[in-house]
């Protein structure tokens, strides 16, 4: 994807039966298109040490493209490589056993633009700026042209402060699947020193936070992947690159909710992916409001996501930019008809949910035209009510939704002219019966109280003063 040469010419096999003492030679395939494109394929050859380049490699023009791959061998030490002519050189040591890289390893290849060191046993102590030193001229080491560096699937905990001193053109850095756990101060200084960085992959690095100043200086960062980590909220530090960030991937993190603070400052993001977050339960009011340039939203495979606020896109509906929305494989059953302007979408995905086919869903699918946005082989179906279970939601018609069925007569407003004599008579009779019942009940209560007082209530005791009563004299 990142290396432009595509080589499809007949392969010439060059082999050697004995290895040299210092640089053993192994059979490699050479694919040559012309003097501008060459591939040296040394993959799966059980190579332990880096072999000498075959003579054919010297025939490449100074503007040519060269790809050298040592994929899936047993190399443990990357020694200084011999010169390779050409303008853009790509080298892959993916899936070896590399534990050491010598200083000046790429000194003779200043036009190295792509280097894949993924899936090895490289630690942070092994990675140092001296590895990437270019030619030594006028008493100083020059820079190399490196643009893409893949360090994924290694044993890196921390990065050297000056690691990228000689790679000022670095635009793509992959640190995924390393046990980083904490982005310490020196690692942050190393990353922020790569000021031309456009792509940063920190997925599966076991981090749960990013310091606020971690991305300071990364004025060109466009894409970041934070998937498969331990974030409980979207890092606030992303706002530092909000003016340039266009692609954000935030899958499989233990976030419980998304709210109006989640994406603050990310006004230029055009594609957002939030999927496979098993703890995500709801998307609250104003969640997507800061994403004023959003065009593609992947909100999929969140198995506990049951609720999306009808105001999740509050403030965006009048200046709508979204073209593709994917809500597949969540735990949704209902959506509000005014969640978004459904007719303005180009693509809509809703499969894998337990949809309740009610009036709101009919409104969304039929009246607002969302049914026209499904891919032909991805039409969702009803889970409830039972009589519609298994039916495609594009086929449903519900006769108790008059606002959506034009065969119903418009609802009339009530007026006094609608009254009939029998209605008046029944009303008067009902009022009279209620009044009579109340009177009878009142008389009955008073009679009971009177009987109680005369028969059961004890007489009060009267006290006299025997000194003043003459009858006791």
TrEMBL record:
Top-level division of the source organism's lineage: Eukaryota
UniProt KW keywords: Leucine-rich repeat, Membrane, Repeat, Signal, Transmembrane, Transmembrane helix
Entry-linked Pfam families: LRR_1 (PF00560), LRR_4 (PF12799), LRR_8 (PF13855)
Transmembrane segments: 424-448
SMART domains: LRR_TYP
InterPro entries membership: Dev_Immune_Receptor (IPR050328), Leu-rich_rpt (IPR001611), Leu-rich_rpt_4 (IPR025875), Leu-rich_rpt_typical-subtyp (IPR003591), LRR_dom_sf (IPR032675)
Signal sequence coordinates: 1-21
Protein name from the UniProt record: Leucine-rich transmembrane protein
Protein's organism: Bombyx mori
Classification of source organism: Eukaryota, Metazoa, Ecdysozoa, Arthropoda, Hexapoda
């Amino acid at each position: 994807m990142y290396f432009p040469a595509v080589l499809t010419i007949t392969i010439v096999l060059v082999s050697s039966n004995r290895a040299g003492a210092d640089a053993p030679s192994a059979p490699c395939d050479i694919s040559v298109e012309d003097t501008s494109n060459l591939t040296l394929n040394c993959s799966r050859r059980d190579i332990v040490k880096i072999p000498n380049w075959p003579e054919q490699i010297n025939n490449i023009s100074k503007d040519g493209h060269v790809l050298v791959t040592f994929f899936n061998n047993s190399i443990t030490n990357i020694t200084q490589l011999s010169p390779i002519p050409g303008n853009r050189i790509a080298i892959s040591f993916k899936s070896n056993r590399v534990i050491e890289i010598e200083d000046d390893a790429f000194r003779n290849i200043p036009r190295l633009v792509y280097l894949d060191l993924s899936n090895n046993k490289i630690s942070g102590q092994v990675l140092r700026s001296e590895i990437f030193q270019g030619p030594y001229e006028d008493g100083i080491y020059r820079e190399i042209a490196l643009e893409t560096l893949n360090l994924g699937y290694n044993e890196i905990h921390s990065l050297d402060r000056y690691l990228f001193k000689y790679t000022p053109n670095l635009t793509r850095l992959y640190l995924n699947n390393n046990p980083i756990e904490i982005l310490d101060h020196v690692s942050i200084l190393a990353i922020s020193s790569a000021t031309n960085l456009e792509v940063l992959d920190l997925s599966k690095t076991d981090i749960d936070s990013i310091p606020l100043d971690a991305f300071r200086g990364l004025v060109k960062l466009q894409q970041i992947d934070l998937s498969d980590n331990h974030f409980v909220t979207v890092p606030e530090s992303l706002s530092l690159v909000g003016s340039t960030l266009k692609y954000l991937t935030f899958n499989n993190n233990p976030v419980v909710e998304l709210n109006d603070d989640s994406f603050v400052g990310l006004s230029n993001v055009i594609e957002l992916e939030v999927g496979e977050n098993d703890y995500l339960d709801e998307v609250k009011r104003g969640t997507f409001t800061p994403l004023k340039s959003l065009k593609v939203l992947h909100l999929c495979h969140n198995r506990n996501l049951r609720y999306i606020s009808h105001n999740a896109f509050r403030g965006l509906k009048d200046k709508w930019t979204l073209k593709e929305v994917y809500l597949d494989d969540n735990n949704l059953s209902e959506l509000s008809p005014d969640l978004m302007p459904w007719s303005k979408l180009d693509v809509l995905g809703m499969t894998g949910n337990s949809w309740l086919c009610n009036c709101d869903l009919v409104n969304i699918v039929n009246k607002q035209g969302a049914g026209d946005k499904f891919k032909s082989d991805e039409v969702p179906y009803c889970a409830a009510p039972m009589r519609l279970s298994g039916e495609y939601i594009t086929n449903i018609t519900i006769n108790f939704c008059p606002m959506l069925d034009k065969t119903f007569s418009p609802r009339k407003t009530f007026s006094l002219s609608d009254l009939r004599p029998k209605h008046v008579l029944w009303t008067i009779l009902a009022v009279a019966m209620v009044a009579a019942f109340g009177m009878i009940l009142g008389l009955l209560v008073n009679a009971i109280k009177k009987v109680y007082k005369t028969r059961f209530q004890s007489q009060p005791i009267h006290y006299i003063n025997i000194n003043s009563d003459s009858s006791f004299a």
